[in-house]
Amino acid sequence: MSIFRKHHSETESVEREVQLDDAELRARLDPMAYRVLREAATERPGTGELLHLKHDGTYNCGACGAELFDSSAKFESGTGWPSFDRPTGDDRVELKTDRSMGMARTEALCRRCGSHLGHVFNDGPTSTGERYCINSAALTIDPKEGS
C-alpha cells in the first residue's frame, strides 16, 4: 500500500502527452540537465542553481516545460536539493518505485514527458507529509512579475 495520496498511483499506466526527441534534447539541454532528466542522474547536493532561489513563480519540467511546482510549495529541507510539499496538480507528477542503489525509493517523473525529476519521501514538514526532493537541473522557473 502506498503512503501517498490517491492521485499518486505507482501502478497505473501513463500515456505520455509529449514524446521527446533524444538528439534534440542533447542539443538543447546542458549535459547535467540531460543526465538528470533522461538518465536519472542526481546532481551533487548543494550545487543546484534553484536550491536557494526565493522568487515567486512556477517551476517547470526542464525537458518539456510542463508546470510542476509552485514556489508556494517550496521549503528548505536541509538536504541540498530544492524541496516541495506538493505538485501544482494531481496530474503533474508520476511516481514509481525505484530500486536502484540497493534500496526502494519513490521516483518522481514528469507525467507529461516521463523525464526524471528526483524522488519523493514521506518526511515533509507540512500537512501533506511529503517532500519532493527535486534536482535543480530538472527544472526551469517562470518567475512571477515583480519577484
The total strand number stands at 9
For the biggest sheet, the summary is:
6 strands, antiparallel
Structural class: mainly beta
Radius of gyration: 14 Å
Walk across the major sheet and give the strand order: 3-4-8-7-6-5
Overall mean pLDDT stands at 89
Strand content: 25-35%
The low-confidence runs, each spanning 5 or more residues with pLDDT under 50, are: 1-12
Distance between the termini: 41 Å
Q: State the order of secondary-structure elements, H for helix, E for strand.
A: HHEEEEEEEEE
Helix content: 10-25%
Q: Helical segment tally?
A: 2
Anisotropy-based shape: globular
Question: How would you describe the overall organization of this protein?
Answer:
The longest helix has 9 residues. The N terminus is likely disordered. The protein has a 6-stranded antiparallel beta sheet with strand order 3-4-8-7-6-5. Strands 2-1-9 form a 3-stranded antiparallel beta sheet, with no helix packed on it. It has 2 helices and 9 strands; from the N terminus they run ααβββββββββ. A hairpin with a 5-residue loop joins strand 6 and strand 7. The chain starts with 21 loop residues before the first helix and ends with a strand. The radius of gyration is 14 Å and the shape is globular. 11% of the residues lie in helices and 27% in strands.
